[in-house]
């Protein structure tokens, strides 16, 4: 896939959880559109460094920085390092997330806190650091008409309840209100905050849902478009929301889900 390499020229992006899956595709797509990209990882250092090498060999600019987004000090030092290396931030992709599934009555407090900590508190901590820098620096008209852009990775499960995944669905519902409240508060300061809500995308978070013919058939019954998504489907939406092409879009959720939120069970009438 190709973009005008100047679309995000001169812009500095940070993608959390970028060592695999949707985060990796988002980082690669942003780099192809001309942004310099921080590949944040938690434990997958080698994978992150390989992505950096790939981007660099294609003529782009990237660095890998390790940090647990649920930890305030680690988030602060990640941003400090980014500012030392890249000078500033224009685009934050709040992507890091995980699932720790169990039936509701068996869910431990640790499983609850882990998922809320990474998926929701992590987005708050990273957004707060990014916004502080957007406000300090302000708009640079030659670079972008916004002072900064934040893209929150949500899920169809901000809308679709999900039995057996109460911690995860709650985190995504929280992201929806975090995103909209930030967008409302920060729009006058020329900061745009939006979400992407992916449906079923082939990544390691949901391998069991698509890697056998039976599982895939079952999954496809939930997807009117008739295919499981690929990470690049999301990466392309990230580039659009990060660019001035979406300048008038603020506080919105873009569902990239092959129609999963269209109540496919009702496709043949009630
Ligand atoms: C979850 C996946 C799931 C998809 C659709 C995503 O947010 O992480 O595990 O396949 O939603 O249900």
From TrEMBL:
Residues 11-204 form the Ketoreductase domain. SMART domains: PKS_KR (SM00822). The lineage of its organism: Bacteria, Bacillati, Cyanobacteriota, Cyanophyceae, Oscillatoriophycideae. It comes from Pannus brasiliensis CCIBt3594. This is SDR family oxidoreductase. It comes from the Bacteria. Gene3D superfamilies: NAD(P)-binding Rossmann-like Domain (3.40.50.720). Belongs to the short-chain dehydrogenases/reductases (SDR) family. CDD domains: GlcDH_SDR_c. NCBIfam families: PRK07231.1 (NF005559), PRK12826.1-2 (NF009466). Keywords: Oxidoreductase. GO terms for biological process: monocarboxylic acid metabolic process. Signal peptide: none annotated. GO terms for molecular function: oxidoreductase activity.
């Amino acid at each position: 896939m190709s973009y005008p390499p100047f679309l995000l020229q001169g812009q500095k992006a940070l993608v959390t959880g970028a060592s695999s899956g949707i985060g990796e595709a988002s980082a690669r797509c942003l780099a192809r559109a001309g942004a310099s990209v921080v590949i944040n990882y938690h434990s997958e250092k080698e994978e992150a460094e390989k992505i950096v090498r790939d981007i660099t060999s294609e003529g782009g600019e990237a660095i890998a920085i390790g940090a647990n987004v649920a930890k305030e000090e680690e988030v602060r030092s990640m941003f400090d390092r980014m500012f030392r290396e890249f000078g500033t931030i224009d685009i934050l992709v709040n992507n890091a997330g995980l699932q720790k599934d169990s039936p509701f009555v068996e869910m431990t407090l640790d499983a609850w806190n882990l998922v809320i900590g990474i998926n929701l508190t992590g987005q708050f901590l990273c957004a707060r650091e990014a916004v502080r820098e957007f406000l300090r620096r302000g708009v640079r008209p030659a670079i972008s008409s916004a002072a900064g852009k934040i893209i929150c990775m949500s899920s169809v499960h901000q809308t679709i309840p999900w039995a057996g995944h109460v911690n995860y669905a709650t985190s995504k519902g929280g992201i929806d209100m975090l995103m909209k409240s930030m967008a409302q508060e920060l729009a006058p300061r020329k900061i745009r905050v939006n979400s992407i809500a992916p449906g079923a995308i082939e990544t390691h978070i949901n391998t069991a849902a698509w890697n056998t013919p039976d599982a895939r058939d079952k999954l496809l019954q939930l997807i009117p478009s008739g295919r499981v998504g690929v990470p690049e489907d999301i990466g392309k939406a990230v580039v659009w929301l990060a660019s001035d092409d979406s300048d008038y879009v603020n506080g919105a959720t873009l569902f990239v889900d092959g129609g999963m939120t269209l109540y496919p069970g009702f496709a043949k009438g009630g």
